[in-house]
Amino acid sequence: MATGSKVQLSLDDCGVFHVPGITKKSAAKASELLQENHDRHHIFFNADGFHNHIAHHQLTLYALGASPDQLQRHYDENKGSQRAMGPVDRSVLEELHSPDKFCEYLGDEKHYRTYLSFFEQEIDKDDYPTVVNKYLFGGDKPAEAILVRMFAGFLHPLIHLGFGIEFQQPAIIAEAFAQAAVHSGWIGDFLLPAEKAANGSTQNKSLVDLLTEIRKDEKLSTAAHWSDGNKIRDGLLARAPDEMTHYASQFTVPPSLLEEKTAEMTNAFI
User: Could you give the angle at the alpha carbon of 122 between the alpha carbons of 121 and 126, nearest 5°?
Assistant: First the structure.
């Protein structure tokens, strides 16, 4: 059975889209390799915060019908660039149960293994839907801190969480939360004011309309420079923060329109 620390795929856990003919041997091999990645590798493969994509690769290959040999070959191509995540800091692990201490250690990649252990335990104590609701939508200080960090790193924590939920793997979900925890929270300086502005707004424009307006906004459309290390942080949010908030606050997703807005988002990208 899949747990907060154990990856266990079955033929019922093949993703929303998958090809027919996936075998038990592929499920077992993907589980084995994802478990090795879970137990051994840091979520960043270097000190610059570049992300470990093994979970994304393996689950996608599995859903597309990869054989055990194919899964192993692609894993071997990636594992050489990964780095060890180090041991759990037991004293910090105990402190994470305090909301203030939980937030004190955020943003430090050396605590990835410790946050991973914490979320493994939280999931096994309750279940992953409870943990997702508590640590994303609980509204307290830790939840707000994790929620904004899910959008950090060009959405990598959120992508990782999506894979974990789609394939019903609590251990991958624990990785996603630990990954969010070791990201910087600078994106919250934009997202939280935009959320506040949206709550008081009557505007609800389509993404296509907003993108058209943004292209015509000279200040925002030219805010990112080629020399910016991070085009969002050092460009858009540094040179046009008010404009970003203005446009972002005009796109809202009421629960009743979730499917419609998802289709709209897909259409806008196309």
Answer: 115
Rounded distance, CA 233 to CA 222, Å?
A: 14
pLDDT computed for residue 202 by the predictor = 72
pTM of the predicted protein model = 0.94
Cα–Cα distances (Å) from 260 to 173, 199, 206, 266, 267, in that order, read 26, 20, 11, 10, 11
Report the 10 Å Cβ neighbour count for 154: 12
- pLDDT given at position 23: 97
Using the structure block, give the residue that is written with the tokens 């055990």.
68
pLDDT digits 0-9 by tens, 114-132: 999 999 999 999 999 999 9
